[in-house]
Give the backbone structure.
Amino acid sequence: LAESRSLGDIGEHAFLARLCARLRERAELRSGVLVGPGDDCAVIDAPTYPLALTTDALVENVHFRRDWLTAGELGRRSVEVNLSDLAAMGATPTYTLVAVGAPPDVPADYVDELLDGCVAATEAAGGVLLGGNLTRGEGLSITVFAIGRHEGAYMTRGGALPGDLLVVTGTLGGAAAAVDAWQRGDRPAPALRERFVAPKARLAAGRAFANAGAHAAIDVSDGFLADLEHLCRASRVGAVVERERLPRLPEVGALDASGEDFAATGGEDYELLLACPPELESRLVQLAALCDVTLAVVGRLTPAEEGIVLLDASGAPHHPRRAAGHDHFRAGESRGGA
Amino acid sequence: LAESRSLGDIGEHAFLARLCARLRERAELRSGVLVGPGDDCAVIDAPTYPLALTTDALVENVHFRRDWLTAGELGRRSVEVNLSDLAAMGATPTYTLVAVGAPPDVPADYVDELLDGCVAATEAAGGVLLGGNLTRGEGLSITVFAIGRHEGAYMTRGGALPGDLLVVTGTLGGAAAAVDAWQRGDRPAPALRERFVAPKARLAAGRAFANAGAHAAIDVSDGFLADLEHLCRASRVGAVVERERLPRLPEVGALDASGEDFAATGGEDYELLLACPPELESRLVQLAALCDVTLAVVGRLTPAEEGIVLLDASGAPHHPRRAAGHDHFRAGESRGGA
């Protein structure tokens, strides 16, 4: 087997020229793209909708280790975590840009596959990858910028009211359980690995709930309780949540039953947490079918002064063993290595 | 003097909450900003112009060292290098997003000043900083995403024709001469330092030349010859350039006279290189006054088969001692340390 050539072997300009030619051809076939990747800027035609803009980064040894997932999976994941922010606002993805930092010894094939993953995730969501940037870095990092359009209503973290239902898409805690297995030197169960390496932004659900009149939404990236706290702070409300109702894969259920709190505190699930007026309850079955996603009512919003309360099966307050959410700047709480 | 608290001391969420509150208030005062920093996405009202989109990153020990410039200067520079890409297309800045990677021991004050610099540069150009992302990284890195609008014509790297004049704004080589001094352990002359720490995107010139009918443009980030090569490749033309005509500060002139080639090969000047139809020559004095920038005609475009030729004062081909432009992935050519 021939060794793949590294970025250092090929050189920045030669590698970029090849990469841009490939990406530009794809992008400029799409309507609205006046100038694709490879120039000083991309240029898009005037959109006629409000635009949602977001950025999120994945950093090696902070958010992932290279041996946890393939280059293609890493590229798709880098885009999906950004699309998840668009989903939380109810937006439809239109464009992405990708800024990669890489050490010189990274194989050029690796970066190609990474970018292919970024393109695949962008295009699967109906968007166009418009370009980006490549620079040397000490570790691998991928910073994605995503733009979406709002054809209908949009949601923010604010706007939730006491009495609203708390609805969660999909399942919680699987990604964190996979990371925990890797960090202990184990191989995560396939279903858990999948939750980490292949999150799917809940775009259809975001749009459907925004248009159905949901009051507020956030994507679960820091962990359910941490993101619930963000939503409650922005909306000036409290919340009561039943721990048993948090949706879990069977593998996560077993771990949480034996003392863990992956569903309540594990991050990087990229599901949506939605605050819905009570009259939406009767439409949840229909919305779940429409959006091809499971939906779980996990609690209810309360007045701000009641704070955030997590109840165990007996109805007593449950205090998670681990802090709610992780903080990448605090060594004791950081996950993902380093 | 009290020690400034680090990001690790304060924690990601507390720091971000404070930062976003500050940025959000500023941004939401501006028309067109429906949701400012601090939510899952920013939301802007539908623009009615074609949009230019770009991203560029500054990485510690690759593009800068922290002791070369203040946090505020680094923030402004991070934005200006992106606005320079907008200038090269003839666009007017509208929005920026900033993704910061930082080690946990970075003082929170440092990140605040860095962001203040990003806000200042964005607002000085008439734009709004819409938000961003903060993550842990091994070194400091700032990835900016900039959006501009085209009220008039836009330029690309393609479109230049044989016979076009090559026009350069400002002066070349100063930033590279400053970096060279730092790397030799010297202190650069104040005028050279200024060229590195405080580049100014040539936005007025970009707009004016686009509307005056310039055929092509690129910003000089990799180095004059390297960026000329990019423009020539995209336009399928060659070029002949007179080395003596490259505009230089006196300090750069002295270095280049003694065997250096900072003006021809040094990067990070963030000036514009423009391909102009010959009939624009008579309007250059007026354009320079209008845009408050010096303009130099440095050469002329030729048919592609003539390649790129740099002539010395005697009219003989000049071969720069250093490779044209730098390649961050090739150790021998990389600048900025590490």
